[in-house]
Fold this sequence. Notes:
Number of helices: 14
CATH class of the largest domain: Alpha Beta
Helix content: 25-40%
Strand content: 15-25%
Oligomer: single chain
CATH superfamily of the largest domain: Metal-dependent hydrolases
CATH architecture of the largest domain: Alpha-Beta Barrel
Amino acid sequence: MATLLLNNIHCLATMDDQRRELSSAWILIRDTVIAAVGAGDDFPPETTPDRVIDLSNHVVLPGLVNTHHHMFQSLTRVWAQEEELFNWLLKLYPVWSGLRGEHLYTAAKLAMAELMLSGCATASDHHYLFPNDVQLEDEIRAAQEIGIRFHAARGSTSLGESDGGLPPDSLVEREPDILRDTQRLIETWHDPAPQSMLRIVVAPASPFSVTSDLMRESAALARAYGVRLHTHLAENDKDVAYSREQFGLEPGQYAQDVGWLHDDVWHAHCVKLNEAEIQLFASCGAGVCHCPSSNMRLASGIAPVRLMLDQGVKVALGVDGSASNDSGHLLGEARQAMLLQRALGDPAALTAREALEMATLGGARVLGRDDIGQIAPGKSADVIAFRLDSLALAGALHDPVAALVFCQPSSVDLSIINGEIVVEDGELLTAELPRLISVHNRLSADLLRGAG
Length: 452
C-alpha cells in the first residue's frame, strides 16, 4: 500500500465541512484516498511514507471540477469571432461534419491536458456529434491515458435542417440509435463506485436539438440505470424564444414538463432563467453549470449566479467548448465568474472563496459525488498545489487563497489525481505535450481545409 506525505504546506484550503484553511499543514495519502489531514507535527501513527513532498512554498486546494466542456472544439478555436450562439453554430456545423475518431481522441487529450495544468482533476465532457467513425470511446481512451477523472456525457442531436433544427441533416442521428448507443455505453463503461475514474452521463444536446420524446426517453433511460442527466438550457434570448414558440413554455417550465428538473440533472448556462424558474431549480435540487467566458464571448448575457446561490441552487463551473471560450483554464473561469457578478454593480456580489467553492464542492455536487471536491479523510486523493513565489502572486501573499482568483491565473505546480502524481514542477507527466500539440494543429488544419 503506497503512502505519500505532502508536508509543511504553507496554506491548505481544505473545502471541508468547516471550510478550514490550515497553515503548516500536511496531507497523508494512502493509495487513491486521503488518509489524514492536519497541521503542525502531530502526524497520525504511520509507517514511514514512501515519499514526502515539501510544500512550504505552496497554496494547496482540492482538485478542481469542470462540469461542462465540448473538447472536440479545441480544433476550431477563434472561428466565427463575431457571432451569437445560433449563428455561431450554423458557421461551425459544416466544419464539424468532417470530424473523425482521430480528431476527437486528439482534441480531447489536448483539452484534458490544458484542464489538468489549470488544476482540474475531474472533468465532464458533453460530446453530441457523431459523424463518420466518431465514438465516445475516443474520449474515454484519452482520459484513461492522461489520468483525469472523467464523466463522459453521451450527447446527441436529432433535429436536422429539414426538421427545423440547426445542423445539416447529415450530422444528426436517429433517436432509436441514440438511445441504443447510450445504453451500450452505460452498460460497458459506467462505474458508480466511490473513487470512480469513469462515469457515463445521458446528455441530449439541447431542447432545440432533439425532440421532446427523446428528452423524456433519455430521462427514463438514465433513471433506469441510476446515471445523471445533462443538457444546455436558457443560454440566450433566441434559446428562450425557441422554447416559447415551440412549446409555449419558459425553458425552466419545459425542463420540468419533460422530466428534467430533478436532483439527478444539471443544466449548462441558464443565463436567462427568471426568478420563478430559479426557485423551481432550488426546490427540486437541479444543478447549474456556469460558463462565464463562453457567455461573454457569444454575448449571451450574465447568468444570475448570485440569485441562484442565495436561493440554494447547486452551482458549478465549466470552461465550455474551446470554440466558444478559446481557452480551457478552469481557475480562470473562477476568476471570470467572480468578476462578472461584480460587473452588475455590487463589488461583493461573489467572493473569491465562493468562486473556488463553485469550482470544487459545487462541481462535486452537480455531478452527484461526495468523494471529490474536498481535502478530508476518506475523500479521493485529488490535490493541487500552486507556487507562492510566482510573478502573478507577488504582493498578494497575505491571502494566498483569494490571490488564486483575484490575480492572473497560474498553471498548477503539482497535481495529484486518484493518488497519482500527474503534474510535477509544472510539467504534465502523462502526455508528451509538444508531440500532442503538433498532431492537434495538423488535424485542426486538415479539418478546416476540408470544410473550405
